[in-house]
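Sequence in, structure out.
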Amino acid sequence: SEVSQPPRSYVLDLTDGTARPVTAPGTRASAISPDSQDATFTRSGKLYLLSLGTGQETLVGPVDPDAVVIRWSVDGQYLFLQRNDSQKRTATIQRIDVHNGRREVWREVKTLDPTGSIFGIGRLTPDGKSCGFSFQRDLATLYVVKGLR
C-alpha cells in the first residue's frame, strides 16, 4: 500500500521488480483467471472482472455483500463463490457464469450438528468436483447466579 492511501492491488513485473497499480485505492482484486488476464473484485454488492492488461472493468452481476470468491473453473467460464449463513449455519457455494452472470447453487454444506458451527473459506479442486471445508464450534456455558450480595 502507498503512504496515506487505503490498500489496493498491484501487478508485479518479476523481471525488473516494478509494481503498477491495477485497482483504485480501497479496492482489492482476487482470484486471477486461468489465463492470467483477469482478476475479480466486488464493489457495492456487484462482482466485476478486471482486465490486468487494460484496467477495464466488466460487470458479471450482483452478489451477496458477504460472498467470497473461492476460485475460477479450469476453463475460465465460471467463478465459485462462498456465502456463509450464520442463521442456518451453512456454507453455500454458487457457480457464476462470467459471460452472462447466470448463477446456480453448486453445493450447500452443513455440519451434522449446526450448534455453534462457524465455517471457514472452502477450497475446491481445479476440476470443481471436490471441496473441503474447515469449521469450528464455539460453545459456551452460561451460569445464572441468584442471591449474591
